[in-house]
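Before going further, learn to read the protein records used in this course. The integers have meaning only within a learned vocabulary of local backbone shapes. The record below shows the convention in full.
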Amino acid sequence: MLTYRGTGIVNFALGAQAMFPAVVYAELRTSGDLLLPLILIPDRYAIGDPLGFWPAAIVAVAVGALNSTAVYGLAFRPLRQAPPLTVSQISLVQLGIVGLSA
């Protein structure tokens, strides 16, 4: 509701956007791999040994913030004046992309 009131857009992918940093955190803690929401280039990067709580949490929050900022800037902001159905379709496409990345 807060997203809709702030932007006027119903974002169906909000749950996936919130889940992705949790997956990044879990991977950093267990295997030391950094996951990124990328499709055409490798999305998993081995950065060494598993990280501790705070480094993994900071990296996961940063990845989530960058992902949300990129989605807003590349997908939703240019479509501010588009019909609601078009914006809803973009939100559903984003849901599929984030789901494929995780």
Observations:
- The beta strands are 33-35, 44-46.
